[in-house]
Amino acid sequence: MAAQTIASRLGISVKTVSRASAFLSHTGILWTGKSGWTLTSLGSKLARLRSTDTARARLLLRDHWQGSWFDKRALKQLASGPMEDAKLAEALSTGLPGPRERGLYLTEWMAYALLLDRDDQGLFTLPSSQSAATTSGPETTAGPFGVLDPLLNTPTEQFSALPDADFIALMGAYRTVFASLTPKTQSQSGH
């Protein structure tokens, strides 16, 4: 699809579409061709999931982007402590071609993809599983409850304050995690 078509459908400028598309292409969501842009398989899956299950969409991106150059760079920057948006964005975009906004796009999308956390002051921090792995030594890869740590350590009031749709999406994401952690028996695997 051409930039002009996307801009007119979304009611934004062609310049905005071009800037965002460069980032989305770089992160594997769009593919740039001669006649415009096309969603990659990741982009198609993401578009479908975002409209039905945002929690699984976030997990999809996390799994796809974990270990990418920008994930490694962010983790290295945050190893010494929390950082403000602008400072982390600048560190991520140093040496990259294109607009300076690219670093801000990365920080926001990485937070969406659960690769970064924010503390009470709104500063970016290492995700809880990463900080536990960093402080506990090389043999530990997650916090005391592993992947369930955020669920088991979140106060009840915080869950109660979630809108219904967010709560359902969160529980759906954990259902996906539980399903992936449950060993398959012969009757489950169809043998």
Describe the protein in words.
This protein has 191 residues and is mostly helical. Helix content is 61%, strand content 6%. It has twelve helices and four strands, in the order ααββαααααββααααα. The strands form two sheets. A two-stranded antiparallel sheet has the order 1-2. A two-stranded antiparallel ribbon has the order 3-4. A hairpin with a 5-residue loop joins strand 3 and strand 4 (124-125). It is globular, with a radius of gyration of 19 Å. The termini are far apart. The relative contact order is 0.09. The model is unreliable at 132-145 (pLDDT under 50).
Can I get a quick summary?
This protein is mainly α and 191 residues long. The chain is 61% helix and 6% strand.
